[in-house]
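Protein in question kept in full:
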Amino acid sequence: MNFLNKFSIKFKTYMLVGLSVLVAITLSIVSNSGLNIIQSQIDELICANNIERYAYRAILEDKNYLLNANGSLVNREYAKEAFIKSQRAVENIYKTLDKMNGDSTKAIINAIKEYDVNYKRGIYLLKGLDKESKILQKEGDNITFEIQQYVEAKRADIKLELSQNTIEKINTGSNIWHYTYVIRADEKRYLLSQDAKLLNKFKQNYTFMMSELERLKTMSDTVFEHEKIAMFFASAKNYEKAIYKWIEYNKEHVTVVIPNTNKLSSIIIQESLSIRNNSLIDIYEKRELIVGVLIVVTFLTVLFGIVFGALISRSISKVIRNFQTGLLDFFSYLDLQKNSAKQIDVESKDEIAVMANVVNENIVKIEEVMENKLAQMKIKDEHMLNQSRLAQMGEMISMIAHQWRQPLSVISAISINMQIKIFELRIYDLTTQKGREEMEEYTLKNLYKINEFVKHLSKTIDDFRNFFKPDKVRTSFSLPALIEKTLNIGEHLLETQRVEVIKNYDTDLSEINSFENEIMQVILSILNNGVDALMQNNIKKPRIYIDIKESKSGSQVISIEDNAGGIPDEIISKIFDQYFSTKDKNGTGLGLYIAQIIITEHCDGAISVQNTSRGACFKIELKNSTKN
């Protein structure tokens, strides 16, 4: 096949067209002479074959219809579609019979007329079943919704005032709520199987639910409660009416329409096969020789066309496939999915080979440009990361000063107190053993306190110093411990603004392998933004909720949510954009942008934000274990 690579695609295309024309001419010459001999018999056979084909189509669609029209709500549309297709097949049989004469067609024509009447009734019943099914779904949702609202309202009331009456309302309402699910499950199972036991069970559960509703009605004493009970009662009655209407339609459909459809389809099939067999008997004797010759010539001609056509097509497709593969590989490189781009390998000497050479030249040039661009972007990201760290350094110095202020004040107070007691007031009599022991005990006790505060100051310095150390290698650590360390660093900010932190961590969380300080920087940035939002919106009881959960995929997800009301919808999609800030002149617009780079590119994770009922919720997803 390699010899075809020497030709152009244009020449190969002409070869394919010429080969197709040659095959067509050969088949036309051979078949024309034979078809002229048995033209009339062929016409009759065509009609008979059409009747047979449409008959089998009707059989197939009837089977689909019988399979799907069994009371299953899921397959109702398939049943209707199968019924319509079956009717179309029968109509085509009717049209074909108009071209034929003879008494043998009367029985099938009568069966088709009866089939049409049965078909229309079946469509009507299917529409009725669809309608009642939708009512069941709608009213079933309504009763569940109404009783759910009733129960949730009473649960809210019980938080304000605990009373026996409210508890009974909640218990009765919850019982009714439970039974809405029970009767709907009974309904679904019955619609699938039409089992009388399931229907009786449905009736019993429905009656019990309504009796509980009457009991709830006697306990209810507010306009809201009576409205909800009235709406529930109306929907429940519509629901009950729909289920019995569905049963009525389905009974006629199963006991009358489906058996008639099966019966009439069998008659149509039998008569169609009879017409076909009669036509075949007339034509078999005349066509055997011609068909044999036609088959041999056709087989040889088609075989010749397939072999040579396949060789030409394969040659063209291989060249195009190689070119396409090379381009896709290059596009993956442009999308940064691959580190390098391969040259397009095309063995032919056609037009695509010329294009491939041009593309290969440009691949080399673009690789050089891309490498330079990526290097510049990396340098730029490092600069912005450092800029973000410098912006946070001022906040850190303020935090250090605050955390040192109280310990230093205590040390100073202890020192002054010791000076006054020992040297100025001289309350200890050093001439006696007891006085010396009391002074020694007092001095050691206060020196111990001073030593503990000095340790606290030293630990504070270590925490802040470690925060600013750039991570060079991944380390293993637990996210709850990292959160606690971050909260210690931002403790003064939270205490000053009286922000309450509510934590909820999954148990048995494994350690992750990542860059600890960089993740701390991201979390601290989100906390600072949350505190700013709480202060700007003057929230009376500012709170920040921190959750750590393990997802189904095995990753660990940190959720940081405030109750500041959320981010405006018009800017939430821009929150991670570079230089975008909501703090006017006080913001750099780099904090969340850098956070996104750290989590997605450095830590191979994901970060997102969305508004909740309380406020903005940032989610950071990190893998349980990440290889170096």
About this structure: The CA atoms of residues 98 and 414 lie 117 Å apart.
